[in-house]
Amino acid sequence: MTQHQRLLIIDFGSQVTQLIARRLRELKIYCEIHPYQNVTDAFLADFAPQAIIFSGGPDSVTREGSPRPPASAFTLGVPILGICYGQQVMMQELGGLVESGHGTAEFGRAFVTPADKKLPLLEGWFSEGTEQVWMSHGDHVSRLAPGFEVYGTSPGAPFAITADVNRNFYAVQFHPEVHHTPRGAKLYENFVRLAGFTGDWTMASYKDDAIAKIRAQVGDKQVICGLSGGVDSSVAAVLIHEAIGDQLTCVFVDHGLMRLNEADEVVTMFRDHYNIPLIHADEADLFIGALEGVSDPEVKRKTIGKLFIDVFQREANKIEGAEFLAQGTLYPDVIESVSFSGGPSVTIKSHHNVGGLPEKMGLKLVEPLRELFKDEVRALGRELGLPESFIGRHPFPGPGLAIRCPGEITREKLEILRKADAVYIDQIRKHGLYDEIWQAFVAILPVRTVGVMGDGRTYDYACALRAVTSVDGMTADYYPFSHDFLGETATRIINEVKGINRVTYDITSKPPGTIEWE
Ligand code: XMP
């Protein structure tokens, strides 16, 4: 198996630690985030990083018992970059001093001025005098550890950029990983170059490694994979099939709430194109029967979730000798976050996913995407030859069209919704807008309105078009279609879809709205 150069990020609980990993992966550097509690001397020796980054964090190093890295981090002889809390803990541990408050807290944008000395870490910085950075600190370093010098200052942080060049230890008070530090990525690039990284983390090598790992894990046993038609489960299925061929059986629980022709496309793609053994559990009648007349969104989700598990288990039991369950779990789902705040957050929607299968199935998990971010999963999909129509797909919720049909679900409404949605997406594709939009869909509204077509009166459903931009689905804004586009789309929907006589455009952002209507 290929051995990648590895970088370790020790997480002290910053909200933005994941962004450090993003910046590094963009540089084709393999890195892992581990919470400080897990990073012992033994762990470090085993992980053998070529460089270490200390993340920021909400605690104060002046507090007794606050998080610390293991002592051996400083004696491994590898470069270290400390960020914010990471800088402070580095100073504290190496003989400097950190103090709280004293009116020098800085939150938000700040400008760093360079010192009169060159530092390879800062190559490409300060070409215009100062650099904008993003600060978020209450404590500050008030005395440097022996061996360190100052290379940049800001009004609230006299030690904004510090380094001990002999030991290759670098420490900054600001956050280079966030977009508000416009040239932060360059700083990471310089750091990994100084640490001798060559950028050997490519999708082609990842694919070969992942295949070897799956073979080693599974041996000659049978694997079941729940396929939803979404990017994650599709990529996982094709990858595992490439590794172990017909030892993989996919189960596609078709709840009858997919978009127009989608179920057929999934079956054709995986069964006919990839020759993957596929069980198509066509249970539209079961699901829609149970949902008919249900209007409460949470009851819809719970009903679908429960039936999904029942059907999946029933089908999985038919596969003799199955010992493994494959899931498309991604890296953001597995990073153990360092939580200081505790306390449950409010449930807005109880998301139902194909991932939530019960442990009692007694199967071991195969999760070949555990190390990847979403865009890396897409890159892997391309590497595996999956068509762009699958890879670039907008997210689609587990409960499908059920939550795009506010109020009571009926077969008639689902049928109308499917057709309207297909016209809308066709319009978006024709205008070349699909890839600019995070998610777009139609919701059929539980109201009928009066219209006039030809010389006759109509009394049909109204629908709402939704299209949003987003980076992660957590916040979103509506997509600013042109009026021409909206007008043309409304005309097409009303002309082509019997049952709809009024089209509206939803211009709510998230928050306060959510992306889906339910
Ligand atoms: P909301 O509507 O919460 O959606 O703003 C955020 C993202 O999550 C998707 N979504 C779901 N996905 N099961 C899922 O698997 C669900 O129950 C569910 N509800 C919303 C939604 O499509 C968007 O991408």
Q: If you had to describe this structure to a student in words, what would you say it looks like?
A:
The protein has 518 residues and is of the alpha/beta class. 31% of the residues lie in helices and 24% in strands. The chain is built from 14 helices and 20 strands. The chain has helices at 17-26, 41-47, 85-94, 184-194, 203-218, 231-244, 262-273, 284-291, 297-317, 331-334, 374-383, 388-391, 411-430, 483-496, and strands spanning 6-11, 30-35, 51-54, 80-83, 97-99, 106-114, 131-137, 140-143, 149-154, 157-164, 169-172, 222-226, 248-254, 278-282, 322-326, 364-366, 439-453, 456-469, 477-478, 500-505. It has a 9-stranded mixed sheet with strand order 2-1-3-4-11-10-9-6-7, sandwiched between helices. α5 (203-218) packs across α6 (231-244) and α13 (411-430) crosses α14. The protein is globular and about 85 Å long. The two termini are 46 Å apart. The model is unreliable at 339-345 (pLDDT under 50). Xanthosine-5'-monophosphate is lined by residues 301, 349, 351-353, 395, 397-399, 439, 473, 510, 514-516.
